[in-house]
Fold this protein.
Amino acid sequence: MRQEAETPTPIREAAYSLSSGLHKVLSIAAPSDGEMESALAGLIAAAGTARLSEMFDEDYELEDAETFASVAGSDLTSLVLEWWSWIPSTFRYFYERDYTLTEAAMEQLTSAVDELKSSRMAALLSVGSAVDDWHGDARDAFRDSWLGPLEYSGIGAQQSLLLELHAAMLAYDAILRQARIDAREIAVEAVKVLDSLTESNPDEAKVLLGIAGVAVAVVTAVQTGGTSIGITLGLLGAGLAASTTAIDAVNLSGDTSDDVMASVKAAFDALKNEMLAQERAIAEALARTQEEVDGDLRRGGGNLLPTEVYKPGTVDLTTGAVPPSDQFQR
């Protein structure tokens, strides 16, 4: 008769600090779609007013510019888009992706990690005590090649891989949030510079890009307390130290509306390049993780899943065959 299972074995946890990474992300107060549209409208209005002031050598106010456009059989936005057609598509790039859509996927990953820490998983491991009094090649192979690796590395490794994906989503979420903040700040500061063009000494503006290194900060926060799983995680293991274009600020200036808008376009391009650099770094890190996973599974390394060590004469129970008594017995 088999012995009753003893108290379930405690689950080994990967122990990465998701809460720290999540706190970093939630501290980034991204503007809403409505706030971004308002900033876009403000930029268009300021650009149009500045251009008309130059055309007629007068200090136009917004109302004057709108009146002129109306008399000309158009509207101010249409006129501006004839001069700088790139404005809407360039600006909307920074908020066309909804960062909240990552939340559902992250919740599913959290549920999967919790399942790997659950009492049911612990109960599975308690089978170890049930075979302690058995002996034979089949019992030894089961204990050494399956149950041991599952308990001491397999479960923690599976958690770590899920947390790797979770960290990637947190970092991506942070990029999208911060991009909105930086893009709006560029638009707001550009309006000030455009409004000053009628003055003898037009203003200049320097906008700091908060997006520089934002993904690195999130990943670093999650890395705290992580445990080794026998393979190198591309994101949580190696990190994202090289994920930036090294541009942490942009300048807005010019003596004419064309000059200023050219500097605005350059600023938006720099912000987009920084976004792409960090997104690319995340993708490359996950690709490295995939290569590590594939390699471990091909080698039968046992870091991710228990492995079956072949011994000549050992019956494969998955085929339905019954092993002789000397392979698995009490």
